[in-house]
Amino acid sequence: MRTLTLILTALCLMMLGGCSEKKYFTVEGTVDGGRTMNLRFVYVGEDRLNNVITAARDGKFVFRGEAPRDGALVQVLDNDYRRLAVFYAKNGEKINLKVNADDPVASQATGTDILERWNEWTAANKAVLKGLDARARNKALAKYVGAHKDDLLSTLLVAAYYDSSVDPQGAVTLLESIKPEVRPQSVVELMTANSAMRDEKGGYNKVMPFRYFSSETDSMATFRADANRRTLLVFTAGATGRDSIMRALHELNDEKGTKAAILDIRFDVDTLMWKRDLRGDSVDWPSAWMPEATANPSIERLGITSVPFFIVADSAGTQLYHGPALTPALKAVRQR
Q: Sorting pLDDT into bands at 50, 70 and 90, what band is 143?
């Protein structure tokens, strides 16, 4: 009798353990170079947007999250809100994630069939994902969706990579072309999560005056949109993505008749790192260091979702462009 009781108890514990595992998805991962750093996991749950920090120690980390019934599109960000990886998971799944902090496009999640197919698409479109041409990226996504309207991967790719800042209606049209049964609401909601940063009319919040540490005066200064006809705000962190944008910024700065100013806002860890990076840039426009980075209340309301990021504001503070692509930002600056 005692033996039977022990067996029944063990079976019950196994069943409970199995049920508990199915309530969560588990991520076991590594960060290149054995780095110790914080990772921020952002995804839509059953009733809220989850934003959870876990630590990678000596390049290793484990994360457990709870996805809604139709699964979750999970973004992995660093402390500067730079996206390092993105993947899809359902409760009960075990995901292996390799994070490449220097080359986020090379980050890779494995463990399910859909992630394997995702990796194949990423490998085939690596150049366009790394490039600055947002329309070319959107075109590649539209091509896949056009041939796979009944495939969940279509929804995931659009939500993960489509740049709606250059074509907002195009994003809506593309998503609507995908069959509803493979278009999870939780995935679509993550794509539009930054709508909370918009005003009551649906436009982005105005750029209000904010304080920053100035490279020109080596002291605190105040940004005011009305000081220039148009201002291009460039948000970066360290050297991330800077090499690919510097030439275009120099060309803009050298143009005559543009009547636009550039403010280069850095999210470096401290002023020492900021000044070190400045010495290697040789720029003629002012640079700003922002304490607390995207957690700074003045910047948080602008909805900076990644770096590099660009905002073009007119003299009233109205955002003429808001997004991660430089080409449309330059177009907005130069528009007569």
A: very high
